[in-house]
């Protein structure tokens, strides 16, 4: 089992940047598939970025070119660098993990963190 703890959310003006972090603990020896989701009231949870256990990366169309997912395996930390933020990026951002071999962008994930709130004002 792995536990996930997000941090780095906050309030920023349109055009600004934020970097989210997700610290994994517990059974971190496995090479998990990892992802970032966001949830906005009234909308379905959206997977915005995913990284397979082999390192392949996928972004949703809404964030491609603006967000970057990365991982520091030594620190068991996942990151989401968010640039050129706009009010539509506002939401609760969640880190997720799942065990290979059947995992990746668009599939369900077994583990989720508690989330960190991102608010972008115009």
Tell me briefly what this model is.
With 122 residues, this protein is mainly beta. The protein is built from no helices and 11 strands.
Key words describing this protein structure:
single chain, mainly beta, four-stranded antiparallel beta sheet, 11 strands, 0% helix
Would you mind describing this structure in some detail?
This protein has 122 residues and is an all-beta fold. The chain contains no helices and eleven strands. It has strands at residues 2-7, 10-13, 18-26, 33-39, 46-51, 57-59, 67-72, 77-82, 91-98, 111-112, 116-121. Strands 2, 4, 5, 6, 9, 10 and 11 form a seven-stranded mixed β-sheet that branches. It is globular, with a radius of gyration of 13 Å. The N and C termini lie far apart (40 Å).
List the helices and strands and how they pair.
Elements: E1 2-7, E2 10-13, E3 18-26, E4 33-39, E5 46-51, E6 57-59, E7 67-72, E8 77-82, E9 91-98, E10 111-112, E11 116-121
Parallel strand pairs: 2-11
Antiparallel strand pairs: 1-3, 3-8, 4-5, 4-9, 5-6, 7-8, 9-10, 9-11
User: For the report, how would you describe the main beta sheet?
Assistant: 7 strands, mixed
Radius of gyration equals: 13 Å
Number of helices: 0
**What is the chain-wise order of helices and strands?**
EEEEEEEEEEE
Specify the overall morphology. Answer: globular
Provide the β-strand percentage band: over 45%
* Number of DSSP E strands: 11
- Please estimate the helix content: under 10%
Q: What is the averaged pLDDT score?
A: 94
Content-based structural category: mainly beta
**Are there runs of 5+ residues with pLDDT below 50, and where?**
none
- End-to-end Cα distance, whole Å, is 40 Å
């Amino acid at each position: 089992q792995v536990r996930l703890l997000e941090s780095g959310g906050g309030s920023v003006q349109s055009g600004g940047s934020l970097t989210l972090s997700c610290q994994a603990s517990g059974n971190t020896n496995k090479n998990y598939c990892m992802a970032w989701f966001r949830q906005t009231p009234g909308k379905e949870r959206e997977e915005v970025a995913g990284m397979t256990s082999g390192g392949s990366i996928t972004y949703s169309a809404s964030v491609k070119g603006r967000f970057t997912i990365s991982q520091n395996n030594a620190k068991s930390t996942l990151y989401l660098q968010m640039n050129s933020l706009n009010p539509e990026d506002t939401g609760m951002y969640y880190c997720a993990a799942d065990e290979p071999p059947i995992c990746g962008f668009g599939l369900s994930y077994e583990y989720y963190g508690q989330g960190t709130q991102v608010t972008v004002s115009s």
